[in-house]
Write the C-alpha cells for this entry.
Amino acid sequence: MEHILIKILGAIATFILAFIVGMTYGGVVRKITARVHNRLGPPFYQNFIDALKLFSKKTAIHHGVMHFLGPAFLMVSSVVSLMFVPVLIPGGDSWYNSWFSNMIYDGDLIFLIYIMVFGSLGMALGAGQTGNPNSSIGITRGLSQMVGYEIPWVLALVSLMLMYKTTSIVDFINVQQETGTWLMFANPFAFIAGLFALMGMFHYSPFDIIGAPAELASGPVSENGGKFLFTMMSSGSVFSFVKLTLFVDIFMGGASNLVVLVIKTFTLYMIPVLYGIVSHRYRTEQAVTFFWKWPLFFGLLAVLYAVL
Amino acid sequence: MLTLILVIFLGGAILTWLGRKINPLLGDLLFLVSVILPATMFVMNIKVGDTIAQHTLLGIDLVWGLSPLAHLFSLVVVGLGVMLSIYSISYMRGKEKVGMYYFSFILSIMAMLGILVSRDWISFFIFWEIMTWSSYLMVILNGKKVQSIGIKYFVFSALGAYSMLMALVIINSQLGSFMLSDTFNNFQHLSPANQILIPVLLLVAFGVKSAVMPLHIWAPDAYSNSPMGYTAVFSGALSKMGVYGLVLVIISMTTQLPAGSLIRIIVAWLGGFTAAAATLWAITQDDGKKLLAWSSIGQLGYIVTGVAIGTPLAMLAAMFLVVVHALFKGSLFMAVGAIEKQTGTTDFKEVNGLIRKMPVTFISSLLSIIALAGIPPLAGFVSKWMLYEALIQNHNYLLVVLLFFASTAAFLYAYKFLHGYFLGQEEPEWAHVKEAPMSMTIPMLLLALTTFVLGTWPQLLFNSIDSAMQYLGYDATNGKLWTDSVLFSQWGDKVALQPVLYAIIAVFLFFAIFLYFKGRKATRYVTTKDISTSGEIPKEWENLTFKVNFMQPFERAIEPFLKRQIEKYYLGFGKGMEALFDFTRRIYTGNGQTYAIYAIVFLALLLIFRVSLFG
C-alpha cells in the first residue's frame, strides 16, 4: 500500500515538474517570437497568468457529454505518456531521482507511440460534438499531418531498434551510458529524420495550419473556454515536455539531473521554434508530402545505416 | 453428434424458410432456434479430437473432427453467429426477402463450421462451395446492381474454387488420398514442381476469400451490398475461413519447402500492401458501409502478414487479431446497420449529429473504433504491438514501416466514421431519430465490451491460441511471450497491460470529475447552432455541416496513388477477352450456311494440298 502511495506522489511530482517546465517554455517562446518580430512581447510568466485566469473562470455553456470528456481524454494521453518516459536516467545519483521512476519499466516505445495519439482522438471527439466546422477542419488537418510525419519518425525509431535490439526507452538510455556516445551521433540520419518529425509534432510554422489562428479561430480548441481551455493548455504544456524528454532520452543520452534536462530540452526545443518563427506556412497537402520527401529519404538512409 | 448438429442447421434453414411463408413470427422463432440450438450443442458437446464422425459418399471417405486450430476459429463463427442472429431479427423486420436472408444466414454458419471440422479435402470443398453460394445469395439479396457486384463476386469465387479444385486433383493423383493430414505429412514426397504448384493454387483460393491484393476487388462492393446483419458475419467470420486456409497452407506446407520462405515473404508483402492501400481507399469513402468494407480488407492484410511471417509472436498476433477483428468489426457493422435502420441512410453527407440520439450505438462504435485504431487499453493494441515486435525482430523493417503507416492512416477513417455519423451539426431533419431497439444495441455493446476486456486480459484468449499453435508445431508461448496480462518479446521488451489500464482509468476519472461534476450543474446545454465561428454568431438558417470533401487535404496528398487502380487492369483484361470472344463468334456464327462454307473450304484445301499432305 505504501509502495503505491509513493508511486502516486512521484507521479504528481512528475506532473507538476512537467507542467511548470512546459508552461515556462511556452512563455519563453512567446517572448522570443516577439523579440524576433521586433515586438516587446509578454513576460515569460504570462502563460501562468493566463492559466490562472482560465482556471478561475466559470463555464457558462456546454455542448454535451463528449464535450466534457474530450479534454479528459487529452489529459489521459499526456499524463499517461509522461508516466512512461524516463525523466531522468534511471538509477542516477541525484537525491530526487527515485521520484521520477514512475512506470518506465511497464511499457516500451511502440506502446508510447500509440498512447500518444489517444489524446488527439479524444480531442477530436470533444471538438466534433461542438458542431463548429472550424474545429473539424482543424482536426482533419492535424490527423493528415500526423500521417505525414509518422513515417520518418517510425523509420528513425526502427533503425535504432535494429541497431540495439531493443524497443525499450530505458535500454536506449543505458546503451548511451555504456558506450558514451549519444545516439544522435551513433546514427545521425535517424536523428535528422526524427528532428523533421519533431518539427511536425510541435505544430510551429511551417506546420501550423492545424491551429491556423488567423482564419480558423484556433482550430480544434475553438468553442472551448474556462476550465476546458485550461485543461487543454496544461495538457499541451505537459505534452511538449513529454516529447522533448523522450527525444532527449533517445538521442541525447538522457539527463542525470534536472539542470541538464532543462538545458538539453530547451536547446532541442529551440530548433522547431526558431525555424518556425522565420518560415512561412505550408498547406496541409504540402506539409504531408514534405515529410514524404527528404525526411523519408533520411529515414530510409538511417535504416540502411543500421543494417550495414 | 457433429452430423446431427449440421443436419439441424440444414433442416433449420429449410424449416425457417418455410415457416416464414406461413407466419413471420414463426419464421423469426425458428430462425433463432435453428442458429442458437445447434451452436450451443456445438460448443457444449464437440471437443477437440481427431475424428468425430465418418461417412462414405460415393466411395470417398468424409472424415470430420475438430482440431485445436479449427476450435479457435469456430469460437469466432459461433459467437458472431449467435450475436448476429439476435441482431438480425430486429434488423430485418419490415424488409423484403426475410425468409431468403434467414435461409442463407443459417446455411453460411453451417458451411463455416463444416469447413472447420473437415479433415478431408472433399468435405472441405463441398462446405466451401456451400459457403460461397449462400454468401452470393446474400450479396444479391437486395436486388441492386446484381450485374456488376454479383458477377464480380462470383467470378472471383469461381476463380478461387477452380484453383482449389485443381490443387485437390493434383493432390489426389499424386498422393492417392484426400485426407488433410496425409497431404501435410507426405508433402515431401511430391515432385518439386507440384510442391510449388499446390500451395500457390491453394493460396489463390484462400487469398480470394481473405481479400488479399490483387484478389480483393470483389470485396468492397460485396461487403457493402449485403444486408448489414450479414456483413458482420461476412467480414468477421467468413473472410477468416480464407485465413484458416492460409494458415494451413503456409504453416503446414510451405515450411517444408526450401523455396517456402520466398513464398512467405511475397505473401507477407502482399498483406502489407493490402493493409496500406485498403486504408487509403477507406479514407476516401463517403459511405459508412464502404468505409468499413475497405477497412476490413486492410485489417485482413495485417492478419495475412502475421501468418506469412509465421514466427511465434507474429502468429500469436495474427490469431489474436482474427478474433478481435471479428469482435470490433462485427460491432461496427451492427452500428451501421442500426443507423441504416433508424435513419434510412448510411451516407456521411446526409446523416449527422446522432450522438445524443443514439448514445449506446455511439459508445459501442467508440470502443470498437479505439480497438480498430490499436490504441491502448483496448484489444486492438495487443495484436498491433505483437505484430510490430515480431516484424522488427524478424528484420522486416520496411514492412513494419508500411504497416505503421497503414495503422496511422487508419486514424483518419476512424475519425471520419465517428464524425460522419455521430458528431458535427445536429440538423432538425434528424431530430426524430431514436435509439435502435435493445435486441440490436445489446449484441453490439457486448462485442465492444469484449474487446475492452481482452485489451487488458488477453490471456483469456491466448490459452486457446496457444493450443492451436502447438497443434501447428510451435512451442508453448505461455511464459515466453506472455504471462497473465504482460506481453513479452524475445528481446525482453514488455508491456504490462494492467498498470496501463489502471493509470488510464485513474487519470481519466480525475479530469472527468474535475471538468464534469463541478462544471456540469453550473452550465447549460446549448445546441450546435449556438457557436461562435471566427467571432461571428451564425444564424439559425445557416448550414454549418462539414461533410463534403472531409479529408480533401489528405486526398490531395495521396492523389498520385489513387489514380492507380488494379480494377482498371482487370476491366482491361475483361475487355480484351470480350474482343477475343467476339472474334470467335464471327467464326462460329451459328449459321448453317457459314459452317457449310467452312466444310467446303476445308475439303477444297484438302484437295489442293492432297499431294503434299498424303503423298
Q: What stands out?
A: The longest helix of chain A spans residues 2-36. The CA atoms of residues 32 and 41 of chain A lie 8 Å apart. Chain A touches chain B through 78 residues (CB under 8 Å). Chain A has one domain: 2-307.
